[in-house]
Amino acid sequence: MIKKTIKVLGIRLSLLLLVLVLVVVAVATGLMLGYGVLGGGQATRVFSGNLWQEVLQRLNP
């Protein structure tokens, strides 16, 4: 009984971790495509802290 519970809990935690990793990858890919392709910038710059400071400054004039 306890082994089965531990196994089910392990499977659920593994699935949760997998979903979280996939969400992070999807968000990063979306940001890169949006900034690189649609925005015309360099895709890897989306991970730069300076870019996000610029964005936040533009949002709060």
What keyword list fits this structure?
mainly alpha; 2 helices; RNApol_su_b/EpuA; DNA-directed RNA polymerase subunit beta; membrane; DNA-directed RNA polymerase
Termini Cα gap? 60 Å
The major pleated sheet works out as:
none
Residue-averaged pLDDT: 91
Instruction: Tell me the number of helical segments per DSSP (H or I, 4 or more residues long).
Output: 2
Helix-and-strand structural type? mainly alpha
Count of structural domains = 1
Q: What helical percentage do the residues reach?
A: over 70%
The total count of strands amounts to: 0
Morphology: elongated
SSE topology string: HH
Low-confidence stretches: none
Note the quaternary state here.
single chain
Radius of gyration: 19 Å
Our estimate of the beta-strand percent is under 5%
GO molecular function: DNA-directed RNA polymerase activity
Transmembrane segments: 12-38
Enzyme class: transferase
Protein name: DNA-directed RNA polymerase subunit beta
